[in-house]
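Researcher: Here's my situation. A collaborator sent me these components and asked whether they could plausibly form a single complex. I don't have experimental data yet, so a predicted model of the whole assembly would be a useful starting point for our discussion.
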Amino acid sequence: MNPTFLEGAPMSLIATFRLGTRLFWRDKAVLLGTVVTPVGLAVGMPLLLNVVESASLATSVFQSALSLLLAITAFMSVTVALTAQRDQLLLKRLRTTGLTDGQILFGQIVSTATQTVAMIVLSTVAVRVLAGVPLPDDPLGFAAIVIAGSVVMALLGAAYTAAVPRAELASAYTMPVFLVAGVSAGAMGPIPLPDWLEPVLDLLPTTAVVNAVRTGDLAVAALILAGWTVAGLVAIRLWFRWEPRRS
Amino acid sequence: MTAIEVNGLRKSHRGFEAVKGVSFEVGEGQIFALLGRNGAGKTTTIEVLAGFQRADGGTVRVLGLDPYADRTALRRRTGIMLQEAGFFPDLTVAQTVDTWRGLIAAPRPRDEALELAGLAGKRGTKVRQLSGGEKRRLDLALALLGRPDVLFLDEPTTGMDPEARRATWGVVRDLAGQGTTILLTTHYLEEAQRLASTMAIMDAGEVVAAGDMAETLAAQAGRVAFRMPAHVHPADLPLPVTLEGGTAVCRAEDPDLAAQTLLTWAAERGLRLAGLEVRTATLEDLFLESAR
């Protein structure tokens, strides 16, 4: 991204945001994969556990399931969208406008993050109503960490497109990220992990968000997310591809 | 006033030198045709001029700006019709143009752009339902939205029917008449000859012929062709000819004079030069001669 990243174009940012949002809600396959599935998991699992176990276990599982929403609705969604746009030469076409490269990516990232926050809010209300999961004690802190987590995961998803050779492989390439995010936050159930691995997994952005929601301690999560933000920006700067490989 | 300056441009892809020291200039309001076979380096040159790729060597200036370093500023003043670039297939033509209008400062009204591109009747059609030629016209509409000072057209009429092609030529001429500088590539040499006032022919990454279209063609040999009369040997003719099947072809700087000489010779012998065709050099002749 060049220094003129946000140069004089709030209208352009709104336009790219609207474009990303419009395309997101028009694509039924994307909606099934990145809205219906994760929201179904995030609401369905607590609902089931509330029935067969307790509201406290349902609450814990819901908090863990936030990692799935972040991994799928933010990370996977933006990776799939950007690789498709890259391979169809839509990103190249967008670059023929007066938009800076930063504006194009920023609009897509903010759009995806907004969908993610909306899904998390929807799921939070749904599990409150359906599964007796209490609303967060600190709604502002919850909102802040969810927004930050969504933006960082969308940013990392944009950076990750560099590793995806072709658009049709995007979902498969993001599957390991989804699994690691779910396992590390406990969303896949109690899976025994080596002692040395747990502190490492705590450094993942998804785990940091889940831990912050559980403990209310935002400082550690903010530091971790800041570190991932820097890593994501550097990766985009170095490796992001605007066009498919020529061979 | 020069709008595009290319001096010693070099560009390689993974060790393959696609453009080898190309130089040319395009004046403001001119239509310049960059010609060559597939793989000659035309699209790479356009991509450097449009700021998609950084030049490996040489200097490139468009409207006085470095297209790569100043690409954001420059793109607000240029329109680009890429040889290949995607659309959002589920949007209609009107939605596509509206979407693009939101990304461009001071865009043309949607209907004006669609009228210019000859797509006014397709407003409600989804992009995925357009033919190849209609997609090129939509591409043109998008390239014209920002009222560009410089327009890059990479094979603009590929896939268009003859009527649409001629309509597009009219648009290109009108734009140039209003002061827009246009650089186009095309495989339709008639199109280049009709539209462009200056041109360069590229072959294997180098410019092998360049200059003012009319002057360059005037300097080329013309052509006189006729069916070879029976029992006549080429050596009997007053001018040297080559045989292409049963057709004798005489190349001459002044094809009218050559035709007169041949007709006089034939009349003296009671012969008829059937299928006689006399013409000055075309861009196709020059192209085939240059891009071997």
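Model: Some features of this prediction you could bring to your collaborator: DSSP finds ten helices and no strands in chain A. Residues 114 and 150 of chain A are 8 Å apart (CA to CA).
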